[in-house]
Amino acid sequence: GTSAQTLLAASFVRVHLGGSVFSGSSLLLCVPWFAALHSRQAASMGDQRRVPVGDDSKDKYSNNTVKTSKYTPATFLPINLYEQFQKMGNLYFLLISILMYIGEHTLLFIGTIKAFSTIGTLAMMMSISGLVALLDDNKRKAADREANAQAAMHVPKGQKAKQRKDWDQVKVGDILVIHEGDEFPADMVPLFCSGEDGQCYVSTANLDGETNLKIKSAAPLAQKALTPSNGNDEQAVLAQLAKLEGAFVEAEAPQTSIHVFTGTYHHNKSTSDPLSATNLLLRGTVLRNTSFCVGVIVYTGKETRMVMNSRKVPLKLSNLERTTNKVMVVVLFTQGLMALFSDMLYLSQKGDYESLWYLPHIKLLLPDGVSYFMTFFVLYSNMMPISLYPTMEFCNSFQTYFIRNDMRMYWKDLNFPAGCRSSNLCQEIGQVAYVFSDKTGTLTQNIMELKKIWIGGRTFGEMTATKGFSAGKELAEAKDTDKGLEKTINSFLEVLAVSHTCMVSQTKEGDGSIKYDAESPDESALVETAADLGWVFTSRVGAKAVVTYKEIGKNKAQPPKKLEYEILATNAFNSDRKRMSVLVKQGQEYSLLIKGADNVMKKRATKNTKHEELDKLLTDFGTEGLRTLLVGKREISQSIAIAWLVKYQEAQRTLTNREAALDKVAEEIEVNLDIVGITAIEDKLQDKVPDTIEKLRVAGIKLWVLTGDKLETARNIGFSAKVLVTGMTIAEIEKPATGGDVASSRELRDWASKLANKQNNDKAVMVTGAALEVILGDIVMKQEFLDMAEACSVVIACRVSPLQKAQMVQLVREGVKPTPVTLAIGDGANDVPMIQEAQVGVGIAGREGRQAVNNSDFAIGQFSYLQRLMLVHGRWNYRRACKFTIFTFWRNAVQVLCIFYYTLISGYSGTSIFEDWIRLSFNFLCSIPVMATGCMDQDIPDLAALSNPRQYAWGRLGLDLNAGKMVGALVSALLHSLIISGLCFLAYPSFDALGTGDYYTFGTVVYVCLVVDMNYRVLFLNYTHNKYTLGAVAASSLGLAVFLCVYPMVQPITYILVSNMYMITYHMARALPFWICVIVVPIVSVNVDFFVLLLGRIFSPEAQEVVELRMNLYRKSDPAPNQPNTTVYSSLLNTADQTDSEPEPAIGNDHGLDVSPFAQQKCTGLPFDNSHVFSRGLSTFAAFFLVMLGLLVKYNAEDIQQLRLQYAGESGPNDPDPWGTLPREVVNAKDCKHGTTCTWSVKVPKTLRPPILVQYHVGPFYQNSNTYIKSEVPQELRGLAVPEATRKLFCSTEHSRVNGEGNDIYPCGMKVMSFFNDTFSVKGVEINKKNIAWDSDLQRFNNPPDYLKRKKTTWLHDLYPTVIGKEEGVKSEDFIVWMRPSAGSSVTKRYGWVEQELKAGQVLEVTVTNDYPVESFKGYKQFIFTEIGAFGARDLGLAYALLGGGFLSLFLVVASQVLLWFSGRSEASATSRSLPSQNLPGPGPGSSQPPL
Questions:
Q1: CA distances from 1076 to 989, 1043, 1439 (A)
Q2: What pLDDT score was predicted for residue 1051?
Q3: How do residues 849-890 score in pLDDT, each as one tens digit?
Q4: Which helix (H) or strand (E) holds 540?
Q5: Which of 761, 871, 1132, 1429 could potentially form a cystine with 1481 if both were Cys, beta carbons 3.0 to 4.6 Å apart?
């Protein structure tokens, strides 16, 4: 009736039968059904396992193939797409593309933008990111292949010879032979080691980064069985493998801890050995100082400790990315508001547009309010920048490259350059508000030297610069003079020489001297000092520690004594126990030798221990910054020792929770200790630590030091490192001996009250780990402590565990609002939880291994490099990242606002002013310049940033990317979009008169002006310019030129994409107003930007210190006497490139760094002078230039003569006559009815000189309506045959394809059906109808091969016989001109040319046939005679735009000076204000940092 689960639980219970020890599993496996069940359970990863030695016949366990790559050919696409669509922007554009496709192919709403234009850009951007991910993964695959193909030496079952076996073929149960220098391919239990007593040495540097060698041991029974009688010859050992027939290993389930292992080696049915972590050789470790070892594999592949400890780098979303995501939500909301506003405007005027007979009206499935909202939402979709993520990744890659190659962060001692493992956090190191630092090995060198000891009431040693312990002679004299003290001294040194885990090895010099490999620098220092004082640990022989003892002092000439200590048990050190001890037997005497932290040792001392004296000594040592340990000893009787060893061995044999069981047993014997002495070890500060900490404090960063030292030691180190400064109010919070939580709470409130009464920022809190346990366990006290800590610039936590370090970081991240950016820095494995918990983790390549480095986001060699990492790279990267982020949103906002304005004059039909393929290039072309900015821009040089740490406040306070900055960017986008659209729209009549006013050409004009403005803006935003930033702008401009010379100019490309774009570049470039717009847009923009910059400097004082720095850096002469604060930077006035003033570090030739000026970021180039003097001078010059150019254009336009005959309807306020039209030039003849022919006598007001252009004008007429533009079949117009499905797609209304008689209309579309067919003639004046259409269009338009032969077809001349000749068809120039849609809300088209002069006073007899209906939409019609000049016809719009820009510039110049006067600042003082003082502590006493 026993369940299988109970049997499983019992299967590993050890029982005693007849004096022999058996495992329950070996008994229960006799039951067939249970054996099968056990086999299946053991095969899974979560169960304990039984591994027969040499038997690999059953593939029950994981294979040994290691796979770190993410992708396979089948999974790359789905996995990578899943990863990329985790980004909000990518997902947004995918959804928008789907909406665009729905709009194109359904009647839910009108799709105004083709889906390919967005999905194509998205695909390109995601392809780049995917390619980078694939290349990275290919590197991982190559490393996997190399690792899996390594050779292992395998001994097949029943054989004696080795065979090669690839690592990926190794299985559980295999017997492998590992030689010195070889890496272990899987986790194995050693069966034989060639070292003394079955021991071997392994290097675990690949696993935990620790450089000290570790001792491992073979299972004693297996070692004995395999040891040949004639030595340790390898072949002889392998010949003994037959003796292990039937042996097996019981091992725990695979787990992650590399320091814990529980198992049993069963040699036969009656004998077994317990196995612990010392009996497990881990994959990735390397055999050292041992000839060879033989072992059995117990874990393979993903079940090995190394692979199970390999984990993905924690995903840390940068503060900038989080802010960007929030901005995207705001942008999305803004986009929705714009769409809603446009929708409401359309609905309010819906009736007017539905009355326009020439527009295709589509019956939509959704209500108009919903469908048009979706139309506009899609139209404005580019408000969200699709290129932001690739731009960010590109800039992050270069910022990572610069960090890795910075020569000034290269540590020569360890050949260690700076590293970056999280490129998305490059700008995060410029926003840090809290730094959490370990002390030992981080602030200090982790080079331990025993400086002082206390023995028998006396203190020996001095704090000298001499290396090592300085009181050896004094100690010898004390032994000579005080026999009682001599015994205590020997006991003290005995503990140091025996109670440790050090290993002895020969030095490389080969002189017979020895060195100690210790697990920690402290232990090595203690053993070395004991050796110097006569107690020399020489070797380990089996379980014995051999010590050579030689008396020091006078009359001590006898030879050294050899002492052997049998190590019966070792109670290992861990972070919970904080002590280590050994139970030894010497002769017949048993003793416990122990050393540990004072807080745990004092609890276990004998009752006669003088605690007051110890406390005073510990305080004195701590005040000197020394690390202390208490040394103890206990003499133990044989009976107690044996009884305890039984419990110890039982704990060792425990298969579950063995470590906890051993700790519990250790507690029983580590009591009643005689304290024989105290050690005081010095750990010196690293170079430039005080300077670095001082700069971090001046930067306003709060420093939390988290250490395992006691409070006094931490306090002393705090002062020496300038963490604490003289005059600082320091609160000390310790867990009280009585009163518990109540007393702690009272103490907390008392200190909080005291600190609150202090007005200065120099406040600090020191708290112990014991107090933290109480504080963090109570919600109220935790908040009180956090409130108090927030008011302090420094917090020092003493005696804290690794878990508490992480908890402190978590406390700040979760409790402080707004959430600050936290940085944790440490050098050891115990710092990893803190490093991973912080937003930014920095690992120092210390002497405690590389675990901190391997788990960090950034790695440096010394703590002092932190100031350069944060104050230089972090600050630069933050400002760069914010600049390109805001610019990217600003850029797209300008583009979308231009589209929005065009919506107002295109009948709210959803027409984008930019043709789809033109619009497609925008993100790419405009991303190139800002990428260079994001990589190279420097507002101030590196030394200026280091000399002025307060400048770090830009990132810490988030001054470059916040709600105010985004509002400012949107306002700026509004101004720039108004400048671009306003200038181009005012110049539109000039383009129209010159034959370039069609939708495709005019949209390209606006687009070129937009890109030019974008490139100018990048130049304006950059602080300095070099060949890279200028080259990027040039590349963008060149890319635009190449694009416009290929897409619209290469006929096959244009015909495939959009036929109407053919040759627009040529015609656009011929128009002089185009070049005027291209030049004037950046000129007006720079004047506006200079004024906005001035407003920022006057009303946003945080920008002033940068201005002051730059003015002083680049000033050629000394500043004016009345200029403030210039002495602060007097050392910076004599050079334009401060980086050259610091000598290059001597780093040797094997560093592997890129030392080029580019990699060292010395390509600063020329500064951009945006001072007020320069800006006012430039604005004044620009103003006069624009005014003069405006006057020139105005004079030219007024010299153009015209005559306008209005014969139908009235022009209204929405479509007035061109600016500058005189009343005498307009003849109103409105009595001509539709369908009649009318004749008038018209008097020429002023002589018109030939050639005279004849035009017709119809208004309002929305040829720029989205549905109207698309209502044609381009292939049909070129004379090509097209399927009926294509005709239905483009000519959506049936009456534009088929007439009432059922005949096909050729060509089809509403453009054709709305062709202007009024005729116009002047008696005695010939109107030449040639040369009114583009030659390229004449070439493009062709009649089909079966023209006039196709049956049941209504041709163009059948529709308009009075206008289009039968022979002409679509080759009619009148028709070709009409088919190029106007960009404006009215139509002005060329009708012909008059080659004779029309003199003033001459009477013209004008005849008009009025066949074109405009009455239904209250339109009007005009025929126009006009001269044509270089700037177009009679229209003053362009002139007024230029004059307005000029007068605006003059106004801004005057306003700038007035603002300076009213703000009470002179030219100099306008740039002297410093960063806001909030949260910025002043320099401490004695600081070299001047106030700003």
A1: 14, 21, 11
A2: 93
A3: 577 787 788 989 889 999 999 999 999 999 999 999 999 999
A4: strand 535-541
A5: 761
Task: Please answer whether residues 883 and 934 qualify as being in contact, where contact means their C-beta atoms are separated by less than 8 angstroms.
Answer: yes
Ordered alpha helix ranges (H), 624-684: 638-653, 658-669
Give the residue among 492, 439, 438 at the shortest CA–CA distance from 469: 492
Is the omega angle on the peptide bond into residue 1157 within 30 degrees of 0, that is, cis? no
Distance CA 195, CA 178 (A): 13
Stretch (H or E) spanning 1044 = helix 1027-1046
Burial degree of 37 (CB within 10 A; 0-12, 13-18, 19+): middle
Closest of 1243, 1209, 1203, 1208 to residue 1222, by C-alpha: 1203
**For residues 356 and 1267, what is the distance between their CA atoms, to the nearest angstrom?**
12
Nearby residues of 1450 by Cβ (< 8 Å), 6 or more positions away: 1179, 1180, 1183, 1187
Model confidence pTM above 0.90: no
Interacting residues of 463 by C-beta distance below 8 A, sequence separation 6+: 451, 452, 624, 682
SS3 readout for 1370-1412:
HHCHHHHHHHCCECCCCEEEEEEEECCCECCCCEEEEEEECCC
Active-site residue flag, 438: yes
Choice among 187, 343, 438, 857 that is catalytic: 438
Q: How much is the pLDDT for 980?
A: 95
Residue 1252: φ, ψ to 5°: -105, 125
Q: For residues 1081 and 990, what is the distance between their CA atoms, to the nearest angstrom?
A: 17
| Alpha carbons 569 and 418: distance in angstroms, whole number | 43
Report long-range pairs for 159-164 (Cβ below 8 Å, ≥24 apart). 160/235, 160/238, 160/239, 160/241, 161/238, 162/238
Do you find a cis peptide bond into 1485, omega within 30 degrees of 0?
A: no
C-alpha to C-alpha distance for 402 and 706, rounded to whole angstroms: 30
Nearest CA-CA partner of 772 in 784, 754, 757: 784
Give residue 117's pLDDT. Answer: 76
Task: Say if residues 103 and 111 touch (Cβ distance below 8 Å).
Answer: yes
Q: pLDDT digit string (tens) for 240-280?
A: 888 898 899 999 999 877 778 888 999 988 888 888 888 99
Question: Helices marked H in 791-848 — which ranges?
Answer: 802-815, 832-837
* φ, ψ for residue 1081, nearest 5 deg: -55, -55
Preceding amide of 1481 cis, omega within 30? no
Q: Quick one: residue 777, left, alpha or beta (phi over 0 = left, psi -120 to 50 = alpha)?
A: alpha
Distance CA 521, CA 399 (A): 36
Residue 667 exposure: Cα atoms within 13 Å on the Cβ side: 11
Question: Alpha carbon of 538 to those of 199, 476, 1167: distances in Å?
Answer: 16, 22, 67
Cβ atoms of 1022 and 1168 closer than 8 Å = yes
Residues listed for the chain = 1492
CB 1154 within 8 A of CB 1147: no
**What letters, b where the CB count within 10 A reaches 16 and e where it falls short, cover 1129-1163?**
beebbeeeebbeeeeeeebeeebebeeeebbbbbb
How far is 76 from 46, CA to CA, in rounded Å? 30
Q: Which residue has the tokens 């990329």?
A: 84
What six digits make up the tokens of 1079?
A: 């030049």
Q: Judge contact between 568 and 645, C-beta under 8 A.
A: yes
pLDDT < 50 stretches in the chain: 1-45, 737-739, 1116-1141, 1466-1492
* Structural tokens at position 532: 């110097």
Report the distance separating Cα 821 and Cα 953, nearest Å. 13
Distances (CA, A) of 34 to 21, 28, 49, 268, 867: 21, 7, 14, 21, 64
Q: State phi, psi for 1121 to the nearest 5 degrees.
A: -60, -30
Q: Rounded to whole angstroms, how far apart are CA atoms 600 and 605?
A: 9
